[in-house]
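Quick illustration, no need to memorize.
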Amino acid sequence: MKIKLENGLPYISVTLNYQGQNLTFDKVLLDTGSMGTLFSIEKVDAIDLLPEPNDRIREICGIGGREYVFSKTIDPLVSGELVIENFKIEIGDMNYGIDMDGILGIDFLLQSQAIINLEKLELNK
């Protein structure tokens, strides 16, 4: 998977599947400093990936501040040759002042045993 640099930030493409519907995002921040993988609720609305009455809402915090999110398990989450089945993502507002679809965190990178090659700007297994 090719890593694209935009304004000094690394972005990749990912595809998620939720209840038989696929959604591909081309502007997902590759973030080794983020514990979790997060997607914008505005972006996942296209496949009805919305909170349900039994979903637990929780608060997360990071460099961008505090935010409320809910979790969903998707099957699978794919970035190039990296594939994780039954992967839990978080969904929130993501109002950070940066145009992006989501954040691919260290949880996905560790589970997929990803290798980040900065010389070639590639994310591989």
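Helices lie at 41-44, 106-111.
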